[in-house]
Predict the 3D structure of the following.
Amino acid sequence: MIHARGLRRTYTSKAATVDAVRGVDLDVSPGEIVGFLGPNGAGKTTTLRMLTTLLRPTGGTATVAGRDLLAEPAEVRRRIGYVPQGGTVGPASRVGDELRLQARLYGMDAAAARSRVEALLGRLELAGMDARPAASLSGGQRRRVDIAMGLLHEPALLFLDEPTTGLDPQSRAGLWEHVRRLRAEHGLTVFLSTHYLEEADALCDRVLIIDGGRIVREGAPAALKAEIGPGATLDEVFLAVTGRELREQGAAA
Ligand SMILES: Nc1ncnc2c1ncn2[C@@H]1O[C@H](COP(=O)(O)OP(=O)(O)OP(=O)(O)O)[C@@H](O)[C@H]1O
């Protein structure tokens, strides 16, 4: 579903040259839930923005959802959903209106947009929220609306940028359940960045740890923990690999 080789991004300005991503190889199979972890400044957002066609790589190649990232970015966009960190719905907008508008922008006619939005609201346990302004929803409900927004055009692959930042533990666990269900019922492939190691541990089939613009470790959470020793946590794996604690980084961010 994602195959990247030697992906790089150098930011160049008069003041400085920053090698943000220095040759990333990664593979994600259909139906996998993959977590992307790293300390602040490691290159997560830059990589995510490249894989979602928002930022042009300065080197390397990739196919995303079966299309060449550099040669066919519009075809990639058609096949992926992207839920950015800041949310997608204005606070005063009514949930259903915003979703239907977006569906029309994807080219659906009014009837198709109505039924697609109704189905998605049901699927994400948001039935009854159609006429509510986004500002009146809980944090967890708002994040589910963002996910619905990313799924309107039925992408096979969904990118989530720190989907549960700011949510309380219960809403966070609720969102994991929704992501799992979308995978189980619709075969969705999910690539998510997160600052929460317990999230990566609970939700992801596999995690990739990036540091200094390079992937420094990857594997299933259980296998990575077993390498450290009996009873090890993913926090300990992260500390061993990067020399830093992710939790503090996340809190600082
Ligand atoms: N537009 C830009 N111009 C110059 N440097 C940039 C730009 N965007 C990011 N960088 C630098 O590139 C590096 C990687 O940044 P990136 O945002 O990808 O990291 P990140 O892992 O997402 O960090 P965080 O966890 O803090 O969001 C950092 O050193 C950052 O300062």
Strands lie at 2-12, 17-28, 33-37, 59-64, 67-68, 80-83, 157-161, 189-193, 206-211, 214-219. The first strand starts at residue 2 and ends at 12. The chain has a mean pLDDT of 92. The first helix runs from residue 44 to 51.
